[in-house]
Structures are given as C-alpha cells and as structure tokens.
Automatic annotation (TrEMBL):
This is NTP transferase domain-containing protein. Keywords: Magnesium, Nucleotidyltransferase, Transferase. It comes from Brevundimonas staleyi. The lineage of its organism: Bacteria, Pseudomonadati, Pseudomonadota, Alphaproteobacteria, Caulobacterales. The keyword Magnesium applies. GO terms for molecular function: transferase activity.
Length: 856
C-alpha cells in the first residue's frame, strides 16, 4: 500500500504571499466509537465532554477562531446528541457500513466549489492547527504533530502502538503514511485527522476513492487513501501543529484529555489544552508569569518604594503613524531576505558561541542569544490569531526583550557587552516599531514568514547594522526546540540549512551538569539525570528539549540526504576557527568576512556566559575544565559506553562503545560522582512524597501541595536568575548592565505572592553572575511551631532520601535501556562534519592572538 514517492512538482512550493481564505469546514461525526463502550451507547464521540465542553464545541470554536464561517457536521450514530448548535447538519444513512471518506463525500454538495477544512469528530486542537493549514500551498494539506511522542507514550505506554508511518521529504511533502512502523525514528510525525482540500484536491481524493473496487472501498480510510495518492505521484503537503492537541479514541484518552484540560497543581510536564474561546489561549503556554518584584536600590530606596507591578514604563507612540514618520524607516523595504539557516545544539556544545561569530556578518540577520527561537510558538499561540492591524503590537509584546533592557538575558552575559563590559543588548522600541510598520505600510498581508523577516530586518536596522546589498539570510537559533518548530521553519524556508554544534561527549556531559547546578536547575530536577536524559535519553516532551535523536541527527532524515544539515565540532572551531568559519560560510552561501572570527552580540563584544569563563575568544577556553570536578574516571568510561546511543557523535569523535557485557553491566550499576555531590532540594523532596498521595492522609497531601507551591515559586525565582529580571527592570538604566545582588522578600497574598526586593547594584567584575536570596516573610517573622519543625524534618529526611532513591533507580533504568538494548538499525542518516564541506582559502581571516576581543 505504501509505495515510495514516485513524482512531484519540480522544486518545493514556496510559502503563500497571503493566508488562504477558507470559509467552510466539515466535521466527521458519524461513527459509533465502539472503543468507548457504554459512553457512546446513545451518542457519538463528538458529543462527549472534556473540560466542560463537548468535543464538537472545541472543534467549532477553534475553526471559527481560524476564520471559518460555515461549519457542517456529518452525523450518523446518536445524531440527536449533536443537535441544537449553530451548525449545518448532514446525515449519513450508511454510517454503520461506510468509511470516513464516504462520510465526507456526503457533504460534497454542501461544500460546492470551495476549499474546505475537514476534521475528525474526536479530536481537540488549538486554532493554530487550522491556521497552519491556511499558511501552506497545495491542493491537499494534512495537519500533523511532529512532536507526538509524549502524547502516544501517555496514551499507550508504547510509542509505536497505534502509530502509523509518516515520512516527509524536501518541501515538507508527505512521502509515506499509513504503514506499521518498526522504529520510532521512522516517524516524522503523526497525522492529526485534520485536512485542507481545494476543489481540485477533493476531486483527486474522490476519484481515487470511486476508482477503488467496492471491497477495497470499505477499507479505505484517509491514511490509506492518501498513501494511494502519494503512490500515484500526487503531491500531498503538510502543516505542522505547534500547540497541544488530543485524539479521544478510547475511555483512557477521555480521562487523559480531562487532566490536560484541568488546572495542574503539580505542573506536570504534559501540555495543557485550553478551550479556544478562552482568552488564555492567547498566551504562550510555556511562558511563566513575570515575578512581581520591586527593586529598592541604595540610590532610590529613600524616595521611591516602587509600584511592585512588575512592569517597566514604555514610550508611548502615536496611535497612527503619518507618512513623514514612516518615511524615516522606509529603508527596510529596500532589503530582501534570500534564505535562512538554523543553529542547533547537542548539549553544551557552543551553539551560542557559533551564533556570536555569525552575529555581525553583513549578510546575517540575528537577535541576541536565543531571543527569537520562540517565534513560531508565539505565532501559533497568539500572533497568528490576531487581525493584521494588531499583529505588530502582538509581536512587540511577545518579544519585549528585544527592546526592553530590563528583560535582558544576564545569564548569557548580554548585560556586559563591549570593550568595557558596560553595554547591554537591545534596541530602541520606537525604531524597532517604526521599521516594522514601514515594512507593511503598503498594506501587504502579514504572514508568518513576512513578519519573521520584517522583525529581523527591523532589529538589524534599529541597532545600526551595516547590511550587504544582497544575499541576506536569517540566523535562527532553533536550539533544542520541538521538532514542530523546525518543521514550521522549513515550511517557510524549504532550502534552509542546519548547523548542529557538537562537542566531545565527556566534556559536554561535565559542562551540562555544571550548567544545571550553576543556574539552579537542580532545585527541581537532578542535575545528573537531566544531563543524561538530555544528552542520551529518548524521553519525549511536547515542549522543552527535543528528542535526542533530533539533536545529534537532523530533525528530518531528508535534511542529511539533501545536505541541508552538517555537524560543527566545537574542538575544530577552537583549533582552527578561521578555516572552520570560512567553510561554514561557503556551505551557507555567505561571503567570507573578517567579522566571522569576532564574537559579538548586536555588534558589541561578548565575554561569554557567567559560568563559562571570562572571555569568548577562539581557542581561549579549556573545553574540559569541568571534567575533573564533575566526573570520575569511571564516569568517563560510562559516557564512552553511552555514546553508542548517539551514532553521529560516535562517528564524529571515533569513540567505540565497549562490547563486553560485563563492562556494560558494571557501567549500569556503578555510582556516579555527581550522585554524591547532589545538593538537597526541598522541591524534589516534596514532589517525591506527593507521588504517594493516594496512601497519605488528605490533610497531609493538602499541606504538601501548599508548601510545594511556595517552594516551586522560590525555585522559579532562582532558576536562571529569573527573579533578577524583575529587579533589573526597576534599577536605573546606568545599573542595568551590572550583576544583580538582591534579597527577595515574598509575601503570600490571596492568589499568589507579592515580591519585593532589597537590591544593591555595584559594578564588580569579579562577580559577573546574578545572586539572589529568597525569604518568605511569614516564615521569617515568627518562630516555627513544633508541628512545622516535625513536618520539615520528615520532608528533608524521608522525602530527600526517597528522592535520591528515585533518581538512582531512574538513572539505572536509563543506563540499562541504552547499554543493554541493541541499537535499531533503522536510524536516521548521519550528518557529515561541516569542516569537510569545502577546501577554501581563508588568507584574509588569519587569527590574531585574541581576535574575538578586537573589533575590525
């Protein structure tokens, strides 16, 4: 059934200049849903409720939010349960013996000669899913989830159960669907049950269905039909979904959906479903609320107590921009973006450093650190849903850190740029907004790609970058984002290239552990376990770090086959930076330029992350400086064994995994040095105790949850110095480049906490990292009662020991899975090293003693 892709239109289809207008949608809700048992005895699955709303209401709300005006539902079993809604009802009298395709064809007369969105009746999705379909060209466009592993693991306990093959080719064209997979790496995504069909696409689908023998028609669901179309050479395009969704196929799915749609007091790792009509759907779900912090500095504490609202005053711009004002920024319309490339990391491998070397190249548009990496999520969650006249404002609010210096990322050293380490990253809002508005002053539609390009051009011009006359490219820091983000990026830039930065695995592991501890990540998770999972595990997360298979191999196999992905070894970069950077520029189609050896952000010298050394010059950092303190000799042997789970890195570094079974067993059970170094964590202790909530007294569980909420807030303020952002926003501009020293005083209020800060900003180059202390006032104002003391003794003895035991078991399970299970031969193609891309001359880029500390 799944013949290889035979033919396709020459070259990938480019992105649409404007979003399609699709007025109609059809929801297929005729089936019985037998897996639901008694729940669907008198109603279809589309009538079942999740989060207080029927499934069909979730779909209708999402479709209407995406601009669909007319919705028809094709009914069959239990049709009365769906009545009473503002929908068009079409009945399928043959629902018991018919197929999904036949159910759709019942609505063909209603669809008429118009494009239509088709949705299964048992799925929940955000408005961004149908909106993504409207961004894509082609007569048949299927919606899919590139990051479905978390969902499938939660539903079935096995990634492969109930999965079907789904493979993509250049241009994000579907090349295979519907077969039974044998390896999770064979799946580029999961079909969602959401399709856009133009009249021509519907004709193709209907013709293929009617051409099949009657016996075959009874087995033709959409995936089999799409597979047949692909085998005949008919192009099927795809659109990646970037927000949570759910398929409700059985009773277990219904329970999981309920948990996903309800508030999660323990803030589990899974995605949250938000009803499309809820205003909260505009928010990016991963974004944490900004801490409510008031900074009382030594200079202003006697005269200014602060508002404590967590916001910084912004310049107000005229409601309408006149022609004269827009004329100042008209230069943006003279520039054109040719292509884009992505920088992708494998652990702590120098991806930020690589970005800084491209930063000030006259053909490269970039933003500091990873400021732009959330663009595709922000577009899906908020910006894309806004009307065109509100998209620029939504963009500016989503990326405040581009212009609000109070939000500068001090953890990346962006607050101490320039020769004197006294400059801060960012641009003026008025200039940024002026260029953005001038880019669309001619009234052209604002699409995902056009706003992405205009945003980067506006930032470059607002900071005064000297741009080349042609050949501009955007540098996108995909940096471990979910595969759906890479898919959306490739939809906009089909010929984009990916630089995967890699580093010798032992130094990488040591640096990752050090990074987790330095930035307080180990308050909520074990530093060793997180490093192992991130570098070698295959744990699926809907958001957060992508799967390891996509970090050390390309996001999609075709990227390697078409030479759109290469590895860049950090060791090569430090050993011969000029040759490597010129080779990278040659591969990307950029001109060689002396700035390729200068490490900058916004064209200002960068001195590295606070935990990573004192400067960022090529060859200036010992790459193994954390190994001795974090890893024993035995630990290093374990890592060498684990590299077998990362074949691309294994090939790049020539590391052979021990084949001796005894050696592998010893590696599984022997202790790690970091296990003895792990610091006690209240959050992990409380979380572990709550794992046994079912057997604990209700009052104790409630108290554990209350205390855990407090400790999680404390941890959030400390992690990556996020609390210091609130302090820095309140500091005078002259002090914003300094490291923050503050005591945060937290007062519980009705719906959360109010946080005030006692902060002093002094310039001290010896202390370049933010340092915070967190103090709950109600804990500090009175002595603990006897019951409180007993509570914490239990938590910090029993809870911590159980937490360590849980981590010990988890680490051994991971090690056993990686070392004892044979590697599947169906792995993605390995990526070649970037240094081998070309032998090019680089005489004009000879290195000085300290090139990254000198501006040309």
């Amino acid at each position: 059934m799944n013949a290889p892709f035979v033919s396709a239109p020459a070259g990938p289809l480019g992105p649409l200049p404007a979003r399609r207008l699709v007025r109609k949608a059809v929801i297929l809700a005729a089936g019985r849903g037998r897996r639901m048992g008694a729940l669907t005895a008198d109603r279809p699955k589309a009538a079942l409720e999740v989060g207080g709303h029927a499934l069909i209401d979730w779909q209708a709300a999402a479709l209407r939010a995406a601009g669909v005006e007319e919705i028809a539902v094709v009914t069959g079993h239990g049709a009365a349960a769906l009545s009473g809604r503002s929908l068009t009802y079409i009945h399928n009298p043959r629902w018991e013996s018919g197929t999904q395709v036949e159910t759709l064809l019942c609505a063909r007369d209603w669809i008429e000669d118009e494009p239509v969105i088709v949705s299964y009746g048992d799925i929940l999705f955000h408005p961004c899913a149908p909106l993504a379909l409207l961004e894509r060209p082609g007569d048949i466009v299927v919606g899919y989830d590139a990051d479905h592993r978390w969902l499938w693991k939660s539903r079935f306990g096995n990634w492969l159960k109930d999965s079907e093959t789904f493979a993509l080719g250049p241009g994000q064209v579907l090349t295979e669907i519907g077969a039974t997979p044998t390896d999770i790496e064979a799946l580029d995504g999961q079909f969602m049950g959401l399709i856009l069909l133009t009249p021509a696409g519907l004709d193709q689908l209907a013709s293929a269905y009617h051409a099949a023998p009657e016996v075959e028609q009874r087995r033709l669901d959409f995936t089999r039909l799409l597979s047949g179309l692909i085998a005949r050479g008919i192009r099927v395009d795809t659109a990646a979904n970037l927000m949570p969704w759910m398929e409700v196929d059985g009773a277990r799915d219904l329970k999981l959906s309920q948990r996903m749609a309800e508030p999660d007091l323990l803030k589990g790792t899974g995605p949250k479903l938000i009803f499309p009509d809820d205003l909260k759907a505009f928010a990016v779900e991963e974004a944490e609320d900004e801490p409510d912090v008031t900074a009382e500095t030594e200079e202003v504490s006697t005269t200014h107590a602060g508002t404590g609202d967590g916001h910084v005053p912004t310049s107000t711009l005229p409601a309408s921009w006149d022609t004269a004002r827009l004329g100042r920024y008209a230069e943006i319309r003279t520039h054109k973006v040719l292509n884009a490339f992505a920088v992708q990391n494998w652990g702590r491998s120098g991806s930020t450093f690589v970005q800084t070397l491209f930063d000030d190249h006259p053909q490269v548009l970039s933003t500091p650190n990873f400021y732009s990496r959330r663009y595709y999520i922000a577009w899906a969650a908020r910006i894309g849903r806004a009307p065109d006249d509100e998209k620029i404002s939504a963009f500016l609010e989503s990326f405040r850190q581009w212009w609000d210096t109070g939000l500068v990322d001090a953890t990346a050293g962006l607050h101490r740029l320039g020769p004197e380490r006294s400059e801060i990253a960012g641009v003026k809002r008025e200039a940024l907004e002026g260029y953005l508005r001038a880019a669309f002053a001619d009234g052209r539609p604002i699409t995902r790609r056009s706003l992405f390009e205009a945003g980067h051009l506006a930032y470059a011009l607002a900071r005064g970058q000297a741009l080349a006359g042609c050949g501009l490219q955007i540098m996108f820091p995909v940096h471990g984002e979910p595969r759906g983000v890479a898919a959306a990026f490739l939809e906009d830039y089909p010929e984009a290239r990916f630089i995967h930065t890699v580093r010798e695995p032992i130094a990488n592991m040591a640096s990752t552990i050090q990074h987790n501890c330095f930035n307080e990540f180990d308050l909520r998770g074990d530093a060793l376990e997180d490093a192992l999972q991130g570098l070698f595990g295959r744990r699926g997360g809907r958001y957060g770090r992508a799967h390891t298979g996509f970090l050390e191999r390309p996001y999609f196999p075709f990227l390697a086959l078409s030479d759109q992905a290469r590895l860049l070894k950090l060791e090569d970069l430090h050993a011969d930076g000029a040759r490597v950077m010129v080779g990278a520029a040659h591969w990307l189609g950029l001109d060689p330029h002396p700035r390729l050896t200068i490490s900058t952000w916004d064209g200002r010298l960068w001195w590295n992350r606070p935990e990573s050394g004192k400067d960022s010059r090529l060859g200036g950092q010992p790459l193994d400086r954390n190994v001795e303190s974090r890893l024993s000799i035995g630990d290093r042997r374990k890592i060498a064994s684990l590299v077998g789970a990362a074949p691309a890195v294994q090939a790049a570094y020539g590391m052979d995994s021990p084949s001796n079974l005894f050696s592998r067993l010893l590696a599984v059970v022997s202790p790690w040095r970091q296990e003895a170094l792990a610091r006690r964590s209240e959050v992990r202790s409380l979380t572990t105790l709550l794992k046994g909530a079912r057997i604990l007294p209700r009052r104790l569980v409630d108290r554990l949850k209350d205390v855990l909420a407090r400790e999680r807030y404390r941890a959030r303020l400390l992690e990556m110095a996020s609390g210091s952002i609130g302090v820095r926003k309140k500091l005078p501009d002259a002090q914003k480049p300094n490291a923050v020293r503050a005591v945060l005083l937290v007062t519980p209020i009705k719906d959360g906490w109010r946080t005030r800060a006692l902060a002093g900003g002094r310039r001290d180059r010896r202390e370049e990292a933010d340092r915070l202390s967190i103090l709950y006032l109600d804990d500090a104002t009175g002595p603990r009662s006897v019951s409180d003391q007993v509570f914490w003794i239990v938590v910090l003895t029993l809870g911590w020991q159980l937490a360590r035991l849980r981590t010990w078991i988890s680490v051994r399970q991971l090690m056993a899975r990686l070392l004892l299970a044979p590697l599947n031969s169906r792995s993605a193609p390995l990526v070649r090293c970037l240094e081998s891309s070309a032998c090019v001359e680089h005489s004009e880029l000879q290195l000085d003693d300290k090139p990254s500390m000198q501006l040309a």
